[in-house]
Write a structure and sequence with these properties.
heterodimer; A: mainly beta; 4-stranded antiparallel beta sheet; B: mainly beta; 6-stranded mixed beta sheet; 12 strands; about 50% strand
Chain lengths: ~110, ~110
């Protein structure tokens, strides 16, 4: 059974629209993250949340807004979508405070912006 | 600034062969090094990590990696690969904020049966 659930698996959107990517983790972790994997680029760190609070933001654009309604949820709202936003977005989690943390990743949401 | 270089985009071997996937990094401070595997259509899965101590670390499914400070490397090895090892392998480095991984571009390993 997947311990980190991302929905939807595939998403197609038109330029200018808004979408929400869903992430739930059932590992009991206190920290959650978003990473992005664009075509032909390595995975890039986007956000870090700990106990539902934003800890780190490496995303320059305010169009990307994480939302944490519950401890084990970290959704990603993307507004005014652009074709360059097309990527696979991975949610991850870890148990903070273990030093060299091991991240557990979901299977990703592949977003295509037309 | 930390960078990770995986010089081989694709590696093809036969089942039962040994394999080494290369990873070189640059970072100015204390680092954590790790390897992750990504099977097609799946999320990344942790293989192993190094921070200090014995430079050879053992991971899951017979994988091991060796840290070399002089070479700035953290190569991944397996003595005898199985077809199910076919996947993309990512090397990653992180500093004091262990969750903020900088990934390499990945090496796609294909194991021919």
């Amino acid at each position: 059974d997947p311990k980190i659930i991302q929905k939807p698996k595939y998403l197609v959107a038109v330029t200018g629209s808004e979408k929400i990517l869903i992430c739930e983790q059932y590992l009991g972790h206190n920290a959650m993250y978003w990473y992005r994997q664009s075509a032909k680029k390595p995975l890039e760190f986007m956000f870090s949340y700990s106990y539902q609070k934003l800890m780190d933001n490496q995303t320059a654009s305010s169009r990307f807004q994480p939302q944490s309604s519950k401890k084990n949820h970290l959704d990603l709202q993307i507004t005014a979508l652009k074709p360059d936003d097309s990527a696979t977005y991975f949610c991850a989690s870890s148990q903070e405070g273990q030093g060299a943390e091991t991240l557990y990743f979901g299977s990703g949401t592949r977003l295509t912006v037309l | 600034t930390q960078t990770v270089s995986q010089s081989d985009a694709h590696v093809t071997v036969f089942e039962g062969d040994s394999v080494e996937l290369r990873c070189n990094y640059s970072y100015g401070g204390s680092i954590y090094l790790s390897w992750y595997i990504q099977h097609h259509g799946r999320g990344l899965q942790f293989l192993l990590k190094y921070y200090s101590g014995n430079p050879v670390v053992q991971g899951v499914n017979g994988f091991e990696a060796e840290f070399s400070k002089s070479d700035s490397s953290f190569h991944l090895r397996k003595a005898s690969v199985h077809w199910s090892d076919s996947a993309v392998y990512f090397c990653a480095v992180s500093g004091n904020m262990g969750y903020k991984l900088t990934f390499g571009t990945g090496t796609s390993l294909l194991v021919d049966p």
